[in-house]
Design a protein that fits this description.
By secondary structure, this protein is of the alpha+beta class. It has 3 domains: 197 residues, Reverse transcriptase/Diguanylate cyclase domain (Alpha-Beta Plaits); 53 residues, 5' to 3' exonuclease, C-terminal subdomain (DNA polymerase, domain 1, Orthogonal Bundle); 110 residues, DNA polymerase, Y-family, little finger domain (Dna Ligase, domain 1). 39% of the residues lie in helices and 21% in strands. A 6-stranded mixed β-sheet has the order 6-7-1-9-10-8. Strand 9, helix 7 and strand 10 form a beta-alpha-beta unit. It starts with a strand and ends with a strand. The structure holds magnesium ion and zinc ion (ZN). The site of magnesium ion has 5 residues, from strand 1. One of its GO terms (biological process) is DNA repair. Pfam families: IMS (PF00817), IMS_C (PF11799), IMS_HHH_1 (PF21999). This is UmuC domain-containing protein. GO terms for molecular function: damaged DNA binding; DNA-directed DNA polymerase activity.
């Protein structure tokens, strides 16, 4: 148990960014809207029954005085999110962003430094309590001390995020990533929880499968179909049995996770080489219909330009013509003009790319003759560093 990993999750992130800007919102119910959905709400709103991802009309029925803020432009949230990560890098070079509002920080080195000058202070925040009367034996690798120091560092980080950005966060401290994320969800908001390695199985055995990050609905459904609903049940399955239900790498991961083993390193996610979307259909025969389909693709694609991929330099259009003899993909690409970067307006970004795509389409298809297409794809590549 030589590592110390902290998982930090900013509480109701979009809502808090708004509250940080306007402190009069703090004690009022606030919901962040995208289209007709409330995507995040602050805790006063949650107390009034306005949870995450509920329709706007339903939210207003439950809480007529809900303050609704349009959160469709992510620019500001993205900026705050990267500033938070930069701040956390003061504690360690190993920081892994998970979406806009979560970070894993490997503080092993910092803990090691402080271990030498340890003053015997105690935990900050909660410690996960083993509910069994028969306690697991304390490990003698010094990991208990590392968790105590880790909890002190997590408290400093959270205090810092409050002082600098007026953001509260919830934290988890453990000896691996998987556990740190699980325990950070045990006490929220604005609280933190640590766990001793020896209490790992006790915690895991109390959980439903979905509490483990990485077990998504597809994996969960598959396990349910073979009668596995809890982590405890999963841990009884031999690896060979798991391999009959899942591809080998996934079977091995599940086999380890349910025993609390996660050797994955905290490393920054690497930037993808390209981000693209495709849509196939039986026929598309007019420029008007093509424009509509391509426009929808672009809108969807723009929402995926996050985490250092905001500045693609190249955009590519792919098509498949309806042709009984072949399903050949054809594509053409062009560079993205600087006007795309300078505007923050999503509609404008969309129309800039749409114009480029329609030009490329005219090069791929002779529009003066009848045509029939069965697929469009739009792909951004060649991402520029900030
Ligand atoms: Mg969060
Ligand atoms: Zn240990």
């Amino acid at each position: 148990h030589n590592r110390t990993i902290i998982h930090l999750d900013i509480d109701c992130f979009y809502a808090q960014v708004e509250m940080a800007k306007n402190s009069s919102l703090r004690n009022k119910p606030v919901g962040i809207r995208q289209k007709h959905i409330i995507v995040t709400s602050n805790y006063p709103a949650r107390e009034r029954g306005v949870g995450k991802l509920i329709p706007l009309t339903k939210a207003l029925e439950k809480c007529p005085d809900l303050i609704v803020i349009n959160g469709e432009d992510l620019t500001e949230y993205r900026e705050v999110s990267f500033k938070v990560t930069d701040y956390l890098k003061k504690f360690s070079t190993k920081v892994h962003r998970l979406g806009f509002d979560e970070n894993y920080i490997d503080v092993t080195e910092l803990v090691q430094c402080r271990l030498n000058q340890f003053q015997g202070r105690l935990f900050v925040g909660y410690l996960y309590q083993n509910s069994n009367t028969v306690k697991a034996q304390a490990c003698d690798c010094n990991c208990r001390l590392r968790m105590i120091i880790g909890s002190q560092i997590a408290a400093e980080m959270r205090q810092g995020l409050w002082n600098v950005f007026s953001l509260t966060s919830s934290g988890g401290i453990a000896h691996n990533k998987m556990l740190s994320k699980i325990v950070s969800g045990l006490h929220k908001p604005n609280l933190q929880t640590a766990i001793y390695p020896e209490d790992t199985l006790d915690l895991l055995h109390s959980l439903e499968l979905r509490k483990i990050a990485g077990i998504g609905s597809a994996t969960n459904n598959k396990l349910q179909s073979v009668g596995i609903t809890t982590v405890k049940e999963l841990s009884t399955l031999p690896l060979a049995v798991l391999k009959t239900h899942f591809p080998t790498p996934q079977a091995c991961t599940l086999f380890q996770w349910c025993k609390g083993i996660d050797d994955s390193d905290v490393v920054a996610a690497t930037k993808p080489k390209s981000i693209g979307v495709e849509d196939s259909f039986s026929r598309c025969c007019t420029m008007i219909a093509s424009k509509k389909r391509i426009s929808d693709l672009i809108r969807h694609l723009l929402s995926r330009l996050v985490d250092g991929c905001e500045h693609p330099q190249t955009v590519k259009l792919t098509i498949i013509k309806h042709d009984r003899s072949s399903y050949k993909r054809e594509s053409k690409q062009c560079s993205v003009p600087s006007t795309f970067y300078s505007t923050k307006d999503t509609d404008k970004k969309c129309s800039i790319i749409l114009d480029l795509m329609m030009n490329l389409l005219r090069k791929l298809v002779d529009i003066h003759k009848p045509f029939r297409l069965r697929l469009f794809g739009v792909t951004f590549t060649n991402f520029k560093d900030k």
